[in-house]
Amino acid sequence: MTEWGATQPDPVYGESLRLDELLSLLCVNDEVDRMFFVSTHQACEIWFAVVLRHLEDVIDALTLNDGVKAAELLERLPRIMLVIFEHFEVLRTLKFESFDRIRTSVGSASGFQSVQYREIEYLCGARDTRFLNTVGFRDRDRRKLKERLEGKSLSQVFLEYQHRGSERVVNRIRDALHDFDDSMRELRTRHARIAEHFLSSRPGTAGTTGADYLRRSTSRTLFPEIFERESPGTVGR
């Protein structure tokens, strides 16, 4: 127990970031290319968690009629996506033989199985329930996604808010949603290019058709209720 009047020392950099815990979860002792590949995907998942938190706060802000805060949070998201883009680009530095070796070692594991990515889609309003049957999802993964489906989507909350907010703020939010939607579409495009680079016409993991599957996914919108740009029957990550 700290004595009365004594002050706690300020946490140092590593403690503030909980680096010991974080690094213990990273594959830093694996073979260098495998560590590079896995850490790149881990970093993407960290950013997906950040995106999810922003989207949750946007929904809360719109529910409380704070459109300015919602717009500010949304306008940050395309910048976050730029960081994620670079994770995909840096994977191009892998040699083909290294990529094939790593791909074999991870078995059926696939970015298609990213639960957080599906959470982003469901939270925004792209609610294709077929993804609940994704091979590799655990029961708790499906429960998490079903919880997202039970709540209101960002699309629904925005459509309700637009009748209460000022035209200027509503248009600002709509533009921010559009920019974020475009940035997510660009993410799928980058993913498709990486798949084409390494796989060519070979099949992908998790039962997908690889680059062709990813290329078809680029037409999907996160906000079909708002923008209605989704192609009927098109599914993808």
What would you say this structure looks like, in words?
- GO terms for molecular function: heme binding; L-tryptophan 2,3-dioxygenase activity; metal ion binding.
- This is Tryptophan 2,3-dioxygenase (Vermilion).
- InterPro entries: Trp/Indoleamine_2_3_dOase-like, Trp_2_3_dOase.
- One of its GO terms (biological process) is L-tryptophan catabolic process to acetyl-CoA.
- With 237 residues, the chain is mainly α.
- The chain has 11 helices and no strands.
**Which stretches are poorly predicted, pLDDT < 50 over at least 5 residues?**
229-237
User: Sheet bearing the most strands, described?
Assistant: none
N-end to C-end Cα span = 51 Å
Domain unit count? 1
Number of strands: 0
CATH hierarchy class name: Mainly Alpha
Give the proportion of residues in helices.
Answer: 55-70%
Main structural class: mainly alpha
Would you identify the CATH architecture? Up-down Bundle
Instruction: Output the CATH topology.
Output: Methane Monooxygenase Hydroxylase, Chain G, domain 1
Average predicted local confidence, pLDDT: 86
Give the overall shape, derived from the CA principal axes: globular
